[in-house]
């Protein structure tokens, strides 16, 4: 029999050392179940791949990224986010012009309305890009997510590859794996992907009907200084409340 959502959440909390008291006792009791134990081993292995770098290596990598990407956004990043903001504004105007009534949307409808894969900022497709020689990031941009995943997996110790791996898993409908990846990023204040991970986690929770958890993340974004996520979070909270 398939494990319940409660069992999966219990395993995830164990992976992040969030269990204590009754929760820890329940986890230890559940380990007597072969199916539960097998799921734990599988997720533990995947988690180990994602976090296998030592603290020193991760700190060095983050420092390298910081040096490579200054605080001031590059023209390309600024253009991407201004474009996304523009689309969000136009979509909002169109919505209010053509809606006959402010009918609340279902979680599934909200997910569809607000979800879009994170843009490929690493190695964008060009007119000269060949299908046979595309990088993992170009495969991702072309929506060939399964091929992109195969390319990202050997490089999961690299933060950027790991981010786009999580995005690829989400795009293919593997929300549990995507959640595991994004939760790690959301906990890392040093990562450039932390705020993005918070937004995508909120969308996953909306998709799965975990509304209270979604609200917690959206409330954090609503008081952030990120122009796109702040606006979207306010809109989503208005729909969910």
List the helices and strands and how they pair.
Elements: H1 5-15, H2 21-30, H3 34-50, H4 55-68, H5 75-98, H6 107-114, H7 136-141, H8 145-152, H9 159-171, H10 175-186, H11 194-207, H12 211-222, H13 227-240
Describe what you observe in this structure.
- The protein is 68% helix and 0% strand.
- The chain contains 13 helices and no strands.
- It has helices at 5-15, 21-30, 34-50, 55-68, 75-98, 107-114, 136-141, 145-152, 159-171, 175-186, 194-207, 211-222, 227-240.
- The longest helix is centred in the middle third of the chain and has 24 residues, at 75-98.
Q: What order do the SSEs take from the amino end to the carboxyl end, as H and E?
A: HHHHHHHHHHHHH
Tell me, briefly, the overall form.
Answer: globular
Sheet bearing the most strands, described? none
Total helix count?
13
Structural class: mainly alpha
Q: Helical residue percent? A: 55-70%
Record field, number of beta strands? 0
Offer a quick outline of the entry.
It is built from 13 helices and no strands. By secondary structure, it is mainly alpha-helical.
